[in-house]
Amino acid sequence: MVNGDTQTIAHVGYPTSIFKSPLVDNPRFVKQCVSAAVVPLGVKADGPAGFSPDADGRSTIVCSTLRSLTHKTAYRLIDRFGGPKGGEGMNRPRFLAAGALAAALSLNVAVALATDTVNIPCVCELSGAGAVAGTNFHDGAHLAVEEINAAGGILGKTIEMTDMDTQTDPMTSRALVQKAIDSGAYAIMGTIYSGSTIVNMMVAQKAGVPQFTGAEAPNITQKHNPFIFRTSSGAEKGVPALTSYFKDQLKARKIAISWVNNDFGKGGHDVFLAQMKKAGIEVVADVPSEEGQADFSADVSKIKQSGAQAVFVYLNEEEDARFLKEARKQGLKATLVGEVTLTGQKVIDLAGGAAEGAVAHVGLATSAPIPSIENFVAKFKKHYGRDTDHNGIKGYIGVYAIKYATELNGKFDRKALADKLHGLTLDVAKYPNMLLTTSWDANGELSRESFITEVKDGKQVVTGTVPAN
Amino acid sequence: MAQFLQVLLSGLSTGAIYALAAIGFTLVWQAARTVNFAEGEFVMLPAFFVLIGVHWLNMPLWLALIFGLIVAVIVLGLLFKKVVVEPMLPNGGLPLIIATMALSILLKEGAKQVYGAEAQPFPSLFPQATLHFGGAVVSVQDLMNLAVSLAVVVGLTLFLNRTRTGRRMQATAQNPRVAEILGVNTRRMVLYAFLVNAALAALASFLISPIYLAKFSNGETLGLVAFIAAIVGGFNQIRGALAGGLLIGVLDNLTATYVTTEYRAALPLVLLIAMILWRPQGLLGVDEGRKV
After folding, report:
1. Is A135 at the interface with chain B, CB within 8 A?
2. Whole-angstrom Cα distance, residue B16 to residue B179?
3. Which of A197, A339, A390, B177 is the most exposed, fewest CB within 10 Å of its CB?
4. Does residue A15 have a cis peptide bond before it, meaning omega lies within 30 degrees of 0?
5. Which of A170, A161, A162 is nearest to A128 (CA)?
6. How many Cα atoms are found within 13 Å in the side-chain-facing hemisphere of B152?
7. Who's near B246: CB < 8 A, 6+ residues apart?
8. pLDDT by residue (tens digit) across A28-77?
9. d(CA A266, CA A251)
């Protein structure tokens, strides 16, 4: 119970609605019979820098750059005050040193006020079904971080990138985004899987933290989230680029679709069906599969029996490889055409000869005969000893987008970063590490030149270019 | 008809591999009266032993396969029995079951830590050619998987029924006390059961990894399906495990092709529930009574 002897700890910051410490720590104080209470005090960043404790030491107001007190700090406070030990009384007035709370987290509005680092965590799929995509994204992002730090950082501050493995689980990713925000993230890199991004981006949006995702489901940029930004174009931009390929180049009248039943797959599937209907092409087999599915024999068999002249394959990387191997095993003759993943390097490595002849429209292609991309691919291989795919490019340019936009603002301000990116075009001539001229619209949707690719002799080869739309 | 033949053969091929893992469940049950919930990981891991042999030790494939088989038998057979089963068994069946669950997590996470989380390509043991039968395109790989699995099961059955060691292993499984009284070295027979289980798991791994790719999480699906196959077929009979594996493989494929792909994963579970309700001993299993 709060009375005249209660020690008050002011948790200062803005906005106070996101503070967790009153909810977490006050019940602990009650349980431990400590007469203290954490109270939120809304003070914006340009408010007073600090307060002095009262002369009698009975109540202490502490200025902090806290979003929440860590539990360790709360228990330290309990230790300082003490609970009832062997009949000792409560309400011992104590004087809290501001420094005891110094091991806390940064404000929502401004970050790294007095440090030389800027925190940009990588929340991505390092295990589970998304490990292929996530690992490449992670490695591309870290390559960019190393380059930027070697060149002096962003506005003189070194980037600190901690890794958080979502295990390709949406709820885990949500918790990790919250953890990243609690650690004082200036911006967040990731996630790549659409199913995770749709869940966790709401957390970042509520906290006002810009998030750079590799996800491509259309609905990600349709939820009026001002803090989400793509690092590759969504399916609603990419899939339509294939329509003319099916209609004019393949002259296909009957098409089958094999798609993964997750947010990524559903988004692409729906856009594709609408496009085929508009083009007057009949979809003769519509075959969903599950994320992580290993056995595609029934799927391929159904497609084979449908008489499809071409197949739109919209799966994740490992499933692509299994599908291609099964298609080769069953002698499926229809042309296999994908979007984004089907001709990726990892798919080629996993599927081997079964990937030969597969075609895909990709927003990013490591095989593009463009000097900036060739240079990136070489750098990546030298650094990591292996080839990357389009996800490596996504991670790389995402970090550079943060750098360039922040430097255009001249300060570390999350809201200003988001505002700057809306409607921004980063011309590759002036911002070479973007690799291609890149634009974002008011919804965070990305526009950029893209490519038609084909697997020839075990390599992804660019066979055509599609202008930005 | 061509499609049906193709789907049937593909289902039999996959089902035969499930049967190898299901037989492993049966053998461990008979030897130690426990369920090995790490059996899926026992099928996942040998593929990584082979990849280590090929990529880290620069062995040719044939040598890496032998290396993988030997390591699997030692680690998943001998060490499993000595380090996990023997210390836990005196405490009863339930602690041992829990220990195998923990082992499953350990093996899965260990593979992820050592070899990485990404799927790895695994070389196929058989040519990627196809044969044409009456309009159906049949893959040589499917035929060979089926043939090899059936040959191993037939060989194992002959070993258990026609050799002295095999009959001693059966005697130990049926009544270890009487077997011991009659002069059977029951400890050795139990060890042989674990070694055979490890070898079967390794073979299943070599056959299925070219299709499923080698990945640390493969054991989850394989283990569950093999467990269900063993129950559906009959947990205390090797022929039951074979029947269960083939049945699950074929029905899964037929369901996905002719009924629904979205709910195919539900079929094994529905079969499991139906079997437990109507014939708990499984299709070919023997009703066991126990004194309590």
Report:
1. yes
2. 32
3. B177
4. yes
5. A170
6. 22
7. B12, B15, B16, B18, B19
8. 787 777 788 888 887 765 444 444 444 444 444 444 444 444 455 555 55
9. 25
Least Cα distance to A421 among A192, A212, A109 occurs for: A212
Secondary structure (3-state) at B180: helix
What is the signed CA dihedral for B53, B56, A345, B62, rounded to 10 degrees? -20
Structural domain boundaries in chain A? 7-114, 117-233+369-451, 237-362
Looking at residue A291, its amino acid is E
Reading the block at residue B119, the tokens are: 């799927």
Facing B117 at nearest CB: one of A131, A292, A304: A131
ipTM greater than cut 0.90: no
Enumerate the residues of chain A whose CB falls inside 8 A of the CB of residue B255. 298
The CATH class for the domain spanning A117-233+369-451 reads alpha beta
- CB neighbours of A63 closer than 8 A, spacing ≥ 6? A10, A12, A43, A48, A49, A50, A51, A98
Decide the pairing of beta strands A425-426 and A438-440: antiparallel
Q: Per residue in B25-72, pLDDT tens?
A: 888 888 878 889 999 999 999 999 999 999 999 999 999 999 999 999
Does A427 lie at the interface with B, CB-CB under 8 angstroms? no
Residue recorded with tokens 């860590």: A70
Taking the CA of residue B203 and the nearest CA in chain A, the distance in Å comes to 18
Which pTM was predicted?
0.71
* CB count in 10 Å sphere of residue A352: 18
Cα angle B42, B125, B57 (rounded to 5 degrees) comes to: 70
Name which of A39, A17, A18, A35 is nearest A77 in CA terms: A35
Q: What is the 3-state secondary structure (H, E, C) of A140-194?
A: HHHHHHHHHHHCCCECCEEEECCEEECCCCHHHHHHHHHHHHHCCCCCEECCCCH
